């Protein structure tokens, strides 16, 4: 069973990308619905296999490393595989209705969508630094193409800006990978960690870590390297913005977290951990403040992403030089933050797309009166905002509670004001959107009523984000499962 599940995750998206490239948008939509169903079923199957038997290493084609490609299939990886299936299925469903088949450029949405999904699965399951790079490049190039999908000059400018940032980040990461290989003769993260444990650190070994982290934080849009994100997320079509914010920026952070947790104890330092955490804290405040003053609705949500990404980088100080239970608690908090943010931000962007379609404008002040005509989408936007604020019983609350506890347990009390201020500022920009929508304007209201299906999708995602805190225990229990004996080759 396992070989079929792995083939379904990695090769089916690539096959579907080629198939949809050969047909128009409508036929690509039909083909993609079948592919989405396959991906969801396969993702559930792999998650169930790991939940029942534990994680395993899988060798593609039966070839062992270093000649072959070894995949790391653990609880964290399958959790993100399943999250990707859920969010991508919702965004694909929304795009199939939201995008206009008559526009020639939109036919390329489906192949880019499937290449992106293949790259994401490759990153979640990757076990060595170079194959993680391959998956990351596939994600970046697909994402740039999706940003440029509309063909307008503003979209092309944002895509080029995104491409330049992605290429610089990739160059820095790849240089670090080359230095790691030159020093250790291995690209396996677990293998390098084992060699470092045997030999200890040596002069010059910190440079590869710095290069890789710089490249990955640039791709994740950590402050002050976030300049490419608001234009790209703000100008892209709403289903694309949802994919970018919910999944794409998480892939580069996921790699950075894997590297830090396995190699940071040997190559990192207290100062580096605090610096990265400090940049994350600034991102929380700065991104939230900028979101509060944006005139355009999607820019509000885009700057909110800058802020929410900042929370993720508290992983670095909260896992360096602390007791193992504290580190595990911080890792669980960050995992919940990623899942909660992915669901909430996808819901927000999709709901924002519905609101913009209805009023015919991207401006916040154009929402006046829309609360009477599109309450379902507005309610979805607010429910997603509850998770961003960190209010119970949402997944955002559970995540911030774990981060608060790990901050106190590690003696790093200075992260508490960041967690509190971020929640308050999130409430401010969400309520600003609501205030605008409940304003009344003179004259006759003219609103377009989108399909009811377009309103159902963000509502489902928002409810999942809200209820995540109630099932946080079972979700996190899969993360700590040991590697089993079966399932691999």
From TrEMBL:
GO terms for biological process: ATP synthesis coupled electron transport. One of its GO terms (cellular component) is plasma membrane. The keyword Transmembrane helix applies. The keyword Membrane applies. Keywords: Cell membrane, Membrane, Transmembrane, Transmembrane helix. One of its GO terms (molecular function) is NADH dehydrogenase (ubiquinone) activity. Residues 127-418 form the NADH:quinone oxidoreductase/Mrp antiporter transmembrane domain. It is found in: Cell membrane; Membrane. It is a multi-pass membrane protein. The chain crosses the membrane at residues 6-23, 30-50, 76-96, 108-126, 132-150, 162-189, 241-261, 267-289, 301-322, 342-361, 373-392, 412-431, 456-483. Pfam families: Proton_antipo_M. Coiled coil: none annotated. Belongs to the CPA3 antiporters (TC 2.A.63) subunit D family. This is Hydrogenase 4 subunit B. It comes from Marinobacter profundi.
């Amino acid at each position: 069973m396992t070989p079929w599940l792995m083939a379904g995750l990695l090769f089916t998206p690539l096959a579907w990308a080629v198939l949809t490239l050969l047909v128009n948008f409508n036929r690509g939509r039909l083909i993609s619905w079948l592919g989405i169903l396959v991906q969801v079923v396969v993702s559930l199957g792999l998650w169930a296999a790991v939940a029942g038997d534990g994680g395993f290493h899988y060798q593609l084609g039966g070839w062992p490393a270093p000649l072959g490609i070894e995949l790391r299939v653990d609880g964290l990886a399958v959790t993100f595989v399943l999250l990707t299936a859920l969010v991508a299925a919702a965004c694909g469903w929304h795009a199939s209705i939201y995008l206009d088949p008559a526009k020639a450029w939109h036919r390329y949405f489906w192949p880019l969508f499937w290449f992106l999904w293949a790259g994401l699965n490759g990153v979640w399951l990757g076990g060595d630094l170079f194959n993680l790079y391959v998956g990351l490049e596939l994600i970046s190039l697909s994402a740039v193409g999706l940003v440029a999908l509309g063909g307008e000059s503003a979209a092309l400018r944002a895509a080029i800006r995104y491409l330049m940032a992605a290429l610089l980040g990739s160059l820095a990461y790849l240089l670090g990978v080359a230095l790691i290989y030159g020093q250790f003769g291995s690209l396996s993260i677990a293998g390098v960690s084992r060699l470092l444990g045997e030999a200890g650190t040596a002069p010059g070994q910190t440079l590869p870590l710095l290069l890789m982290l710089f490249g990955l934080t640039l791709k994740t849009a950590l402050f002050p390297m976030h300049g490419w994100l608001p234009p790209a997320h703000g100008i892209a079509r709403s289903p694309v913005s949802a994919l970018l914010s919910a999944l794409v920026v998480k892939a580069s952070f996921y790699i950075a977290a894997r590297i830090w947790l396995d190699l940071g104890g040997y190559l990192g330092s207290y100062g580096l951990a605090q610096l990265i955490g400090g940049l994350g804290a600034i991102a929380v405040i700065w991104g939230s403040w900028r979101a509060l003053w944006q005139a355009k609705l999607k820019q509000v949500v885009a700057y909110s992403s800058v802020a929410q990404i900042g929370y993720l980088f508290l992983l670095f100080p909260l896992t360096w030089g602390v007791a193992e239970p504290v580190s595990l608690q911080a890792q669980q908090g960050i995992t919940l933050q990623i899942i909660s943010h992915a669901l909430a931000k996808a819901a927000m962007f999709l709901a924002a797309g519905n609101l913009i379609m209805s009023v015919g404008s991207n401006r916040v002040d154009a929402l006046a009166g829309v609360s009477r005509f599109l309450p379902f989408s507005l309610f979805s936007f607010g429910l997603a905002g509850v998770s961003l604020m960190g209010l119970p019983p949402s997944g955002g609350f559970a995540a911030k509670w774990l981060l608060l506890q790990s901050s106190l347990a590690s003696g790093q009390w200075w992260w508490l004001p960041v967690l509190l201020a971020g929640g308050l500022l999130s409430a401010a920009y969400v309520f600003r959107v609501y205030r605008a929508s409940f304003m009344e304007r003179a004259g006759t209201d003219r609103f377009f009523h989108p399909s009811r299906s377009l309103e159902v999708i963000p509502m489902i995602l928002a409810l999942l984000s809200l209820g995540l805190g109630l099932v946080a225990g079972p979700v996190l229990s899969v993360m700590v499962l040991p590697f089993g004996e079966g399932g691999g080759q």
